[in-house]
Structure formats: C-alpha cells, structure tokens
Amino acid sequence: MDECDLGAITLTRRATPTRTLSVSLPEAVAWFAGERHSDRPHCVSPVLLTTATVLGSRLPYPKRQRLKRFVPALVGTANDGQDERRSLIAMDWLVRVYTPAWLRLVPALDLAQLSLTEHSPVLTVTDAAAALEGPLATVHRVAWAAYTDTLWDRHDPPRSEVAAILSRVLSSHAADAAVAATLGIAESFLPLCGRMRLAVEQALLVATYTHHGGAGSGSVEHHITTMLAPTAAALEDAVIELFGHLIEATVPADHGWLSQDPVESARHTDNNRR
User: Fold this and answer.
1) Total domain count, the chain
2) Which of 22, 67, 122, 249 is the Cys-Cys partner for 128 at CB 3.0 to 4.6 Å?
3) Domain range for 136
C-alpha cells in the first residue's frame, strides 16, 4: 500500500497495529504524508493531533468518516506557529457554543445561556473569565435552590450517583475534543475550564430532576442519555465544523459561530414554529 486512497479507507476509533484500509485519523494523516505507520505523525501540530485523537475516538461511525476530508489539510501543520491561536479559537467555542448549548436544557438558565451565545468573541482567557462570571454564578444559584428542595431527597438514586453518571456521560461526548484543543493555553485556561465544566454538570443535574423527577421508572442513565442525545448530536456536528476552523486557524466570518452552530439553528427553528 504505497499511497493513501482516502476514498477507500475506513477511520477507526483507535490506533491500529499495522497499516490496512482501516486506520485511525492520525494514522491516515501519517500515511497520506508518506510517514511510517504511526498514530503520532510528525507533520501534525500537537494541538491538532490531540484534538484529532479525541474526536476520532468519540464520534459515531458515520460522522467519524466525515473527518477524512481533513487529512490533506492536517499535513504540514506542525511548527506552523498557529497552535496558541487554535487553542483560543477552541476556548471561544467552548464559551459561546458548548456551554450555552447545555444550559438551554434548563429554562431558568435562558438568560445565562443567551448572554454567552450573544457575547462578542472571547479572545483571551481574561475575556473568557469575564464572559462566564455572570452565567456561572446564575447556574450556581439555580443549582443551589434545587439542591435545597427537600423533594429531591426522596429520589432514588441520590444526587451524588446521578452527578457521577452525568460526568461519565459528558466525558464520553465528542465535543470534549474542543477541551483537548485548548492544549496551547492549558496552564492559564484549565482552572476556568474546570469551573465551566462543573457548571454544565450542575445545570444538567437540575435538568435531569426537572425532566424526569429523578430516576423514575427504568435506568437513570438511560433517562440522562435520552435527555442529552439531541444536544450531543448537534454538538458533534458543531465540533466537526470547529475542527476545520482549528486546522485553518480561522473563525467563521460574518456572524461567527451563531450563524453555523446547529444547536443555535435548532433553537431558532423551534422559535419560528411557535
């Protein structure tokens, strides 16, 4: 197999021991670039390689195959001087797309999520912290009010178990690839990213009990997975689009993320139907 025929290969979730027509995304890039079989091709930037690895392992099969179109553009991104910019773009996406997408599942957080989706681009970690300050405080207040509701104490399983399930389910989603993409600013952004993730988990804990009254009948994990599925699917499409922008180290033109984000488009469609 001398040349990589992108139309013939299948992208796998994980690295493979030998080069066949079934390879992971990084291995496909190494093949396309003429490197030896490896899931750590020398020609790809560290930020993009980390992002590609997480994205390829989390996306469902059909959507994972859509990543093949990025293979040629990934070649030659190593040492191109754009990794910090890529990480800032991913941070902006996490603040203005990822976080409000989950907050929308709680009606009491409508203003908080709108303040993020309608915020101007966040270009520094300081900008991100300022943009998130009010919404995260609102999430904390709403969650605290829910936690102190004695009706919650009657639900089984307890909140701690539901919170653990939520954390596990969220950690399996493809949108986490955007967190991996912040590698270039990890030292300064990681604490804020942790606060943002905690707020998302708090909001989804409220949503779980609001929508289902606790576990109810059947598995609570099934309830959670079902509740999160539409947003998770929309964010899969959005993070694939983000990956293309990370490779090019550019942000969407005109209206930015809001003009292309599937979650935002779905919200506008629902509003127009009312």
Assistant:
1) 2
2) 122
3) 83-273
